[in-house]
Amino acid sequence: MADSVQKTPRLAIVVPCYNEEEVLPVTKDTLTNLVSDLIKKKKVSDDSFVAFVDDGSRDITWKLIEQFSKENALIKGVKLSRNFGHQGALLAGLNTFTNSADCVVSIDADLQDDVKVIEDMVDKYNEGFDIVYGVRNQRKTDTFFKRTTALGFYKLMKWLGVEIIYNHADYRLTSSRVLQQLNNYNEVNLFLRGIFPLIGYPSTQVYYDRLERFAGESKYPLKKMLAFAFDGISSFSVKPLRMVSIIGFLVFFVSVIMAIYSLISYFYLGTVPGWTSITLPIYFISGIQILCIGIIGEYLGKVYKEVKARPRFVIETVLQ
Questions:
Q1: Which candidate among 60, 180, 261, 274 keeps its CA 20 to 30 Å from the CA of 79?
Q2: Longest dimension (CA), the chain
Q3: Are residue 44 and residue 158 in the same domain, yes or no?
Q4: How many CA atoms lie within 13 A of 95 on its CB side?
Q5: 264 CB contacts (<8 Å, ≥6 apart)?
Q6: Percentage helix, strand, coil, to 5, in the chain?
Q7: 287 and 213, same structural domain?
Q8: Residues 6+ apart with CB under 8 A from 209
Q9: Which residues of 113-151 are buried (b: 16+ CB within 10 A; e: fewer)?
């Protein structure tokens, strides 16, 4: 929990970036103006800052970050050696500045998450909360497909027993002691929005309306969203594996019943088995087997990655 003795906290805002040259100038102005305003209000200390993390961008994102850092003392930068993905870039920024700030806010570079509630997050931190989750009021800006699949994902995660904040992505404030505990979570398969609730320090929520993206394009197409969703499921729940066992038992049970029915039909009803009664069970059982093997394979792949324990990110340059 934040210190009982009231003090002005040092705030860091960590922004993962991947090919964000179109939005970065506006993002820089918006966030630095926000930090300057909070400093003037004496809500954060005058050594607070904004840190941009370049996740192996192929455009001029890093050159812009270097330029911004030279022009503005509020801006710091981290350059990864290659693209490690959003979660890896975010973790790199959080780890880099764990000991450089009292509290850290993570936010995406497109600023679809309303920056105005950062002040509310800081207020909640000063009230004694270690984690403040940014939660969306509604999903009017999403397409019907994205809105439906996102809500379905949260419900599925809850059903699988994963502790997750409904309608929360990676927009949150965390205290330095939360980030210190985060360093003890060494899994390679990152799903940060599932890890933070496990830490267990005092937490609360602030609510906001998500805005339209003002430039550039989304870095999360359908393929990446599906991969991210399954990473979250397989990293925090073993229920799919248990479901494989249940499905196997049910198929076995049905097979026993079908075997008994076939024997009775053969000896007492005089029926001749037809093509349908042979092929349909084959297709059905084969499909179940392939599905189960696929689920087991996904988990085996997770174990393979964890056992290798390769670095989750590699930092090339840090601008302080």
A1: 180
A2: 92
A3: yes
A4: 19
A5: none
A6: 50, 15, 35
A7: no
A8: 114, 136, 137, 138, 140
A9: bbbebbbbbbebbbeebbbbbbbbeebeeeeeeeeebbe
Domain range holding 130? 11-219
Residue listed under structure tokens 């499921």: 233
**Both tokens assigned to 102:** 């009292």
Q: What does the pLDDT look like over 33-87, one tens digit per residue?
A: 999 999 999 999 999 999 999 999 999 999 999 999 999 999 999 999 999 889 8
CATH number at residue 24: 3.90.550.10
302 CB neighbour count, 10 Å cutoff: 17
Amino acid identity, position 69: S
By CB atoms closer than 10 A (0-12, 13-18, 19+), residue 273 is: exposed
Both tokens assigned to 230? 């399954």
Rounded Cα distance between 70 and 64, Å, is: 10
Residue type, 249: F
Length of the chain: 320
Residue 232 has pLDDT above 90, yes or no: no
